[in-house]
Amino acid sequence: MTALQHVKLGTYYVVHMPEPDDFAFWRERARQLVQCDVPPDRVAWVEPGGNGSLFSHGDKRLPVPEDENRVIRASKRFLTLARNVAHHSDPERFSLLYAMLWRLQSNPRILEDKADNQVRRLEDMDKAVRRDAHKMHAFVRFRMVETEGGGEHYVAWFEPDHHIVRREAGFFVRRFANMHWSILTPKGCIHWDGETLRESGPAQKSDAPQGDPAEDLWRKYYASIFNPARLKIGAMLKEMPRKYWKNMPEAALIPELVAGAQKRESDMVDAGSLEFEDRPETLGAIDKAIHACRKCPIGSLDNQAVMGEGPADASLMIVGEQPGDQEDQAGKPFVGPAGQVLDAALETAGIERRETYVTNAVKHFKYVQRGKRRLHQSPTAKEIDVCRWWHEAERAIVKPKVVLAMGASAARAMLGKTVSISKARGEPIALEDGSELWVTAHPSYLLRLDGDAKAEQERLFAADLAAVKERLAELAE
Amino acid sequence: MERMAVLDTIQKLEILADAAKYDASCASSGTAKRNSAGGKGIGSTEGMGICHAYAPDGRCISLLKILLTNHCIFDCHYCINRKSSNVRRAKFTPREVADLTLTFYRRNYIEGLFLSSGIIKSSNHTMELLVETARILREEHDFRGYIHLKTIPEADGELAHQAGLYADRVSINVELPTDTGLTRLAPDKDSRQIEGAMGGMKMAIRQSKDERKRFKHAPRFAPGGQSTQMIVGADAATDADIVGKASRLYDNFRLRRVYYSAFSPIPDASAVLPLKRPPLMREHRLYQSDWLMRFYGFAPREVMQATEADGNLPLDIDPKLAWALKFRERFPVDVNRSSREDLLRVPGLGTRAVGQILASRRHRTLRLDDVAKLTVSITRVRPFICTADWRPTLLTDRADLRGILAPKQEQLELFAA
Which residues of B touch A393 (CB under 8 A)? Predict the structure, then answer.
């Protein structure tokens, strides 16, 4: 060891990094320099291709420490931080790390001082490298090419901000262990053949394949999973900044998705057409409103709305399906053949129709024209649900203690689901407002039967009405 | 894939992804670490979830989130797939879903699969198809990526158990915060059945953890835990109701997450639904309150204290600020002396900033400038802290403090997904 190799006051040293991300090399040189007490302002760290001529007066031969075993302090946290920061693209990273290593010798816990500017700068760089790595895991898009042997080779083009390609190879090896793949970047490339990892120099975008049929599927998925009713462009940009878009096949859709979003949302709302006014508060107001209602196609047929009928304080409300041909002409509920069946059964059961509020789940007559006749059509579940708005308004005013729903449509209007009459009848069902619901068949069903079946159904219908009558008497006590 | 097959698949994918987008969760985090080295297939999970893309709705796309089918025998009014809805229907086979998952996974589009389904034929039949999809991926393809299965509460416990053996995460949606809401809007569902199934999952997850402590090779059961989702704004439940329900669910079923989904307009909506959609901000405030309970040491009743007279959280300010404005006597908090718990109560100080304050103050007496370096907005924090050179003498008592601190712009959606 000659005297020349020892540190001299006033000497500058220059360290040329062999690779931009060679942390091990930096660590060896940095340890040596600290052991020789070379202060940070006397060392320049130059990365490959960096401008080393600025430091041409510096000494490229580093000093040799007097005691190679002198312990240099570096906390675990510092090493983790430094390993990440070494991959940053900032040309000052190695100098900053050296400055921090220098300070650590006198204050081993300096990294805890998060308000220190140098600590903050290193932490920001650490964060930037980790974010870049995370975005690489996320945004690399492989394209499949068939090899000459008929195998599959997956190739991606990615543009990282920092020197992370080699560092992140492990992630892709662990995930795609049995695939052949290459990730090409302007900062160097990595290749995996299922067994070994190979590196190669920088590539260009044109070296990568230009498309993959699966991208049509992926784009369709991206467009379909997007909910146009909740546009939040800022939140998207925060996590997926524009700089990444050019290498992501789905990103090309973003402008049209954003532009179309508002129209799609308003179309949905229009199609639902649920802009009901405030709920009417009198029976007269409901009567008026249902005549103007065109919220489902039935309202637009050649018919008139039929309002419920009966005392506004009735304790029993009977709900049918919808007005029939005769009801439509008369503008009153249950005046046709089914009404006659109902009236007779009510009388037998001892229920006064005059004291009962009689109405329908659907307010307009739904039919198809066959020559001169208008044939009854059952309302769809959707049409029943739309009309629920009106008979709920009636119920809110009349406040019956018992509701008798006749037929599946009326039961659906009350329960929101389609039930089987045979299963639902015979037992009261508690409703939200404290009243109770009884379910029975629709009288028009009885008209369609004959023989034993008719007799049996008439018996059941009568029994249901009798049960309702009994229940009303109990509730009246 | 053949060209024809792509076309057919693309149409089904369009329908079945569109039908799945009302489920908020897309998380792929918190499961066991594994990779494909030494295996025959592909896939890895390394703890942290990865969002492979973001849609313009700000939501993360981490998983292939689709329904097996959108045919459904149920008639839930808030659901686009309900029986009475007039939407286009489609059905994938389990094998088609498995192939699609692998096609996407190999190109690094996704972390895995989130599979749910409408109920076809019966709950058991549907659940068998979901389990079969997971089985194909795991057993035939040795797929080691993430699988989230939505299990069907009405299905047999044995099927739910098989789902848990293949999946990283299982979930059952409670759908609505109140029983009356459920009866009205999801008449085919039953809250006791839903919570019973969640209880069964909790037991199975716990049992598997115990077994793995004793036997290294005991099978894992849903290592990513279970989660659920509630729809916000479709029934009359207040934020206080929702927070209470969420906290009971966390306690009773050891949930990893409760997701909130603001009811949003759907095509061919049911007439039984509310007339107005809730503001998206309401969902955001609920996520913030969820965060307060999980990471900031707030008890559910403390979050409820932040609600206004109508039982809802304020929309113009976040719940932490609302709480602080109601309990001004708890402030200012001295950043140089106060405990972690007290610092976490300061509006504008996140868990990270609090950690940094606690570390830094061992080295220096913090001044306002120092705190400013550690926070996003010192203006927000200032009225609630004191430092070596700052005391908010008058500010904390000002009646118009809320007006001063309420943000002028809508905040970003950070917590969904």
Answer: none
